[in-house]
Amino acid sequence: MDMEFQTNLPIDQAVRSLQAAIDEPPLAIVDLRSRLHLAGQVRPERVVLHRDRRRSTSYGHFEGRFTADGHATRLVGSFVREPAGILSSPAGMPIAIALVCAFLAVIRWKSRQDLAQVFMALVFGGTGAFLIWLRASKARNEAILLRAEIAKKLGCPGA
After folding, report:
1. Which end of the chain is less congested by CB atoms within 10 angstroms, N or C?
2. CA separation for the pair 51, 35 (Å, rounded)
3. Three-state SS for 27?
4. Rounded to whole angstroms, how far apart are CA atoms 155 and 105?
């Protein structure tokens, strides 16, 4: 997901603004639950930002760089999702069980007991598909929240 931010700040001031957002501590423990502050590194040639999550880093991050365009400064980059193999994700185990159940049901398709294996394959396959959808939804929401947070810190209307 491509993102572009335009601000009237000079590059060095825009870098300082994002760096201050990274360096500022949260106001209180309650603040950590309500809104996550930015973390990462900010340099004019390379910006890597994510919202600070101590439990999980699988949501993705923003990678970009600053460019000067006349009197305006642009931060151009994209939201990068963390790559994950199917078996390393939470959906991996239900999908593996679904494949095994489906394989056994196809091989042993002679009695009514095999209908239970087909049912198990459908249940575990549906659970795995739901977990894959849930992860994609969380990554999409994280990109939207990160976009809003960066735009707020740069003082621009959005991307």
Report:
1. N
2. 9
3. coil
4. 59
Q: Is residue 79 part of a domain?
A: yes
Q: Which residues contact 104 (CB under 8 A, 6 or more apart)?
A: 114, 117
Domain count within the chain: 1
- The answer to whether residue 48 sits within a structural domain is yes
33 in a structural domain: yes
Range of the structural domain that residue 6 is part of: 2-83
Nearest to 75 by CA among 24, 19, 36: 19
Angle, helix 113-154 to helix 92-107, in steps of 10 degrees: 160
Edge-to-edge order in the sheet of strand 72-80: 2-7, 72-80, 61-69, 46-51, 38-43
Q: What is the pLDDT of residues 34-92, one digit of tens each?
A: 456 678 888 888 988 887 665 555 677 888 998 887 788 888 898 887 666 655 566 77
